[in-house]
């Protein structure tokens, strides 16, 4: 029975399509933004588009009908408890007879838990490890859960070690019994111990059944932390577990369902949530919002809108009968939950999930403390599991993104900005030759300040007059996120910082300047700070020579900083280069030796290769990348060359004519591959097959077996 009247215009969604048999249980990454990812988990009852929340449905209560969740809120999957069904005769019998989808009247994905949580709450459960998996299989569940051992935060290390070991020892038989059709959750226990969480992630990730390993890894034992708002420990556990969990398995935060936590949990790599909070809070007259919880008793007006509350006042809702009120608030809570998840997915799509997490961190002191603690982990180089996840999170973040970058007190700690600054520090070099054809070290640094972007309009004349005065000057721009070589003036985010005009007239702190100069290897040089004055008379011949030289610096520096090409190789490739300019006077096509090799990307300042450019870059590196699992025994270098992906032979005819590289066909990839940046696709001899944009990073490519790995721009084996 539906308790809530359906709007006349609500469409009734068709039932989902089952996945292809060979895709059952596969997880695909469609888009990533650092550790955050948009994914698809393929099941017999359709796809779970992640990040998403599985609302908890108590089969005895059903505050909102599962069918209504599907129809009205687009809920693709829910979670219920197989132990509750097992214990109640009526549910047990009907579930086994008609299947769990009929029992709940839900056409989408049904996940079940195993009774572990009941054992945590009530002390024990009567069901056995094998019996509960068999039962879930017989119910026709999509994703079941093995009976894990709940590790409480107050347990000693020894007790937690036992919980982890016992859970791991139950895994092989559970997977074996699950067989072909039942996908299984492999919970990661480990209490508050990051090393035990990492061990659990590794060992549970390695267990194989006859058909497959675990489909999903929930992080268990965290409900007591969330109840006490111990968010710092919660996120420490997430980072530690994520250091070893295979990236082709979604990560589920067991029992986490408050919208306040979604953006940060997603930014740190969570794919699935589940919670009964929408119904439990409602019974308690509490309304969820993305920034916290409101008590109905305190409200005169709604500070948040939802279709459930629309047209009613808080006083009217207070006056309702208890049951009706609970159902209404549960609808509000579910609606808000779904809306916040949509907001998060959109943020991942647009490269803004960290900014959203940063905003939300201000909504709760405990969340803010956790956020600042994670930032500390990002900037420290801890070697433990938390440090590994933090470093990976930065290295897998595309440093370039279009659109505005909001200025905030935390801006410089956003992972993509940390990544860009570290690339700048390791890969940028001052020019080896100057516009007047002289060579040698720079003799001066000139910092241009006091003007906003676009600097090609506000500062170019000052750059030119500075270089006429002193050709061997390195010109840097002062920005709220540090000093930037003028050659990278159109690289977003630097050129797209959203801030008040006054920000640009503030002068950088001397200590910050000294630090930035040291990072760029420019310490020890005389420094001059300059505010551009009026445009002076200029000599057109000199101006044109300087502009050509600046254009070449731009290409060499972008290839070096963003694509790992050594400046020496960059100079060779751009020898005698000619560029075409747009009507707005921006460089658009770069030709060298009569070949169009590069198109600078106007929207974000990155580089787009042409096939001829890809061929030239591939010639710089004769060794193909190592296959996954092979040990690199060479020396780490600052400029490892453009990142490459090694393709399986049977995919060459397809990718060579322009088809995308699919996961499962990748044999190896350079570790410095960055999702969203250009890469080359090569065969086992190192010959170019195609070039394109990486969708995932090297570690993902080693594990994933579904979805696009490289979006190919052009095949190298096409007939002309
Ligand atoms: N629900 C909330 N926490 C847990 C947990 O640790 N294990 C299981 N199986 N279910 C949970």
Explain what you see.
The protein is built from 27 helices and 29 strands. It has 3 domains: 6-363, Queuine tRNA-ribosyltransferase-like (TIM Barrel); 405-607, no CATH class; 620-715, Archaeosine Trna-guanine Transglycosylase, Chain: A, domain 4 (Roll), CATH 2.30.130. Strands 25-29-28-27-24-26 form a 6-stranded mixed beta sheet. It has 720 residues and is of the alpha/beta class. It is globular, with a radius of gyration of 28 Å. The mean pLDDT is 95. The longest helix is centred in the middle third of the chain and has 28 residues, at 322-349. Helix 8 packs parallel to helix 10 (231-242), helix 10 packs across helix 17 and helix 12 runs antiparallel to helix 14 (322-349). A hairpin with a 2-residue loop joins strand 12 and strand 13 (292-295). It binds guanine. Guanine binds next to helix 5. Guanine (GUN) binds at residues 113-114, 116-117, 145, 148, 150, 187, 220-221, 223, 254-255.
